[in-house]
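Researcher: Structure for this, please.
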Amino acid sequence: MKLLKWLSVADRFYKIYLDKQLAPFEINSSQHMFLIKICNSPGILQDSLMDMFYIHPSNIVRTIAALEKQGMITRSPNEQDKRTWKLYPTARALSVIEEIQTICKNTEALLLQGLSETEKTILTDLLMKAGKNITSELHIERKEEEFNE
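Model: Predicted structure, token format:
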């Protein structure tokens, strides 16, 4: 029970902290990872985000709609399959993405503060294994490389 408690505490408070840091950019802790991925992979298919982030499709649709409304991304139909959308960063997103990535790196550093490099590696590896365990139990299949992102 101790593990579940501290996973919950870390999750809840890092999101609060990250929300405060990202507020000047008008995005939040649930949007930043989408924006970073779209900026790093212009033209990425919206459907591919489901496999990357383990998030329900309706949450992805809501997040993409919010980022589009905020002027951070644009969507265009996929020429190969009109049912899917390609996502592109706007000039606004590209102008702030480095600052957002720095905020994320600093937040991660805060979470890992006081840990040796070995401990950081071990913690990351163990959390990845835990994630694999729970997704496997729920019969959520993922490619091995998706766990390494």
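Researcher: Any notable elements?
Model: The first strand starts at residue 44 and ends at 45. The mean pLDDT is 91.
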